[in-house]
Amino acid sequence: MQLKPGSLKEFVRYISNLFSSEYFTDALRITLSIIVPFSVFYYFTDPHTAIAVGIGGLQISLTDSPGTLKDKLIISVSSLCLFFLVTLIVGLLLPYAVVSALLVFVLCMVFSMFTAFGPRYALLGTIILVLMTFVQGLKPADPLWFSLHIFIGGFCYYAISVARSWLLPFSSVRHALGECIMSTADFLKIKAGFYRPESSLGNNYLQIIKLHNKVSEKQEQVRDLLLRDKRLMRPDNTEGKKNLLVISQVIDLYEMISAIQYNYEFLQQSLKDTGLLESISKAVEHLANDFHELGLALYARSRVKPVDSSANEIELLLKEIEKLIAAEKSVYSSVLKKVHDNIENIYKGIRQINVTLTTKAEEIIFPEDLPFQLFTVPKRINLHLIKRHLNLKSPIFRFSLRFSLACMVAYSLMFLPMGFYSYWILLTVIVVVKPGFGLTKKRNIQRIKGSLIGVLLGFLVLILISSVTVQLILAGLFLLGSFVYLRQDYGISIMFLTPMVVIALHNYDSTASVELQRALDSIIGCAIAFGASYLFPSWEIKKHSVYIRDVIYANLNYLKKLHDEASGLPSNSTSFKLARKDVYTRLAALSSGVQNMLMEPGQAQEQIQHLYEFQILSHQLFSTVASFFPFSNSNGHLAEIKDKIEEAIHILERSLDILNNSALQFCKEVDDTPKDYLLDVKQHDHVEKHKIQQILHISQEIKNQVCFLNYENR
User: Fold this and answer.
1) Could you tell me the pTM of the whole model?
2) Distance separating alpha carbons of residues 494 and 482, to the nearest angstrom
3) Exposed e or buried b for every residue in 178-205, given b needs 16+ CB within 10 A?
């Protein structure tokens, strides 16, 4: 493989930053929390006791997802209690094959239903079933002592994890904030592509939508870690207030960037010969790089330094735009003024975040707190959720039934003469089967690739290295690598985990052909999981109307907020931002759904293409509406276009009626949008008229896409 110029330097920097990041330090802590208790028990007791303690620590570590101290306390107690009970019950019933099989089915049904409680408890349910599989495979002679040793391993792990959260409360927040800033910088860099004359606007929009999902996820993670932690949000906690100020500034900057929406095609055509587009694109990329450096410093746990490498370039660009406007060489000067203001505001926003990060918390004059609690969703366990899903109409119940039947097929293979480690088939099914077909297929591919490469690595280690001590050290390093990538890339994590398992099992029972057996079991398990995905399926393509309805409804609510402002109702920036956040969330769900649809069999590419177009139109619509905010100095102009806003609202409402099959006749309507609001390139002011014309056009196109998709699925 040939490295591009500078790629080796970038790779070295990536490795350096990775070793400094929370991913590595957490992985190191987790690995030591497992290996140290294992080594102590191995030295003072016997290998079987040490293995039980190690399994307890390893399995419970997988339930330790990022969260507040309260989250960790709740999940640790829940995990320890459930681990002990499940291990004991499964171990006691092992001699009774029929009862044991029934227990496996019941446990699979119960713990797969944990999906209804959200990702954290869905993960807990999965890990409990993985532990059940280990008990089935290891067949402990004394279930009570084995359960106690599992409990001890888990307790040792969470004692360290909880202590770390107590002592370093801001570590995870800063790491999440760094990732949020870097993803926002990537979003800004993609925005720069819209100004390149040769770039594809369609591809740019699809990249923007994909990155929008990532940014929304990172913002939600920071909110979750910071705003739900009462210790960090105490009025006297200046460091907590500083982080709150930074994330609010980052979100405001992202919303400003998202709201930048022009007629890019016309902009490219009008300015392609001026050289200005290339200058704008280059300047925006420099701003994105500066912003990325701030996030990288937080991510890599290094000191945040003042970054302002783009100052001169921004100043020259702004002067170039001002000169072009003054000379009236461009008939698109009204938009150029907007470009000028937007670039200047982005530069100021990045500078403000830089200043906040590099200023001591005690020296910051904090503004009045915003009601950020409105932007977070309280996380509570409600048992009524389970009752609501106990029917075949529920996708969660169908998933649980499908999952349980697949596990029973895998469990039955444990009684065939396939080798001692055939319980890995059941384990593979448990970790691969997911609620959706697309997710299961993706996890299958990652699992098979990771397992096959990992088996090869483990096989090479066993052939080339005869020292058991060196083998076990390498196994520990492989385990470390697995934890480093566990939250980043499942396939790479499995690639590291598999050789660790191969080496450990080889030293546990050197007579077994662990390498080939492990690979074969993984393939068989993936085949069962993939086959089960066709049983009681929950096809994403059938839910496309739900995704579309949610997006239109969110955009409609957002547009109504603008109408309220145009009607002279009191401004409420918080409700406007909440409505915008709802659009973000709905668009992210649609994008995720479309990606899963692409992995489903037999999908019509034409239908997917229309869904892509609907995504782009919806993104353009909310960006154009967002560009009206803040409303300063525009109330008069908004009042003039109030009737046009009502027209757009009416079009979107008709789209919802079409989706409900109650107004299909609207699909035959001809677009009678008045042409007096078409873009007048000679008009240097009143940009709101241009924007509302764009909103009307986009709303009509959204209705057209809804008509096509609705007729296709009748």
Assistant:
1) 0.82
2) 7
3) bbbbbbbbbbbbbbbbbbeeebeeeebb
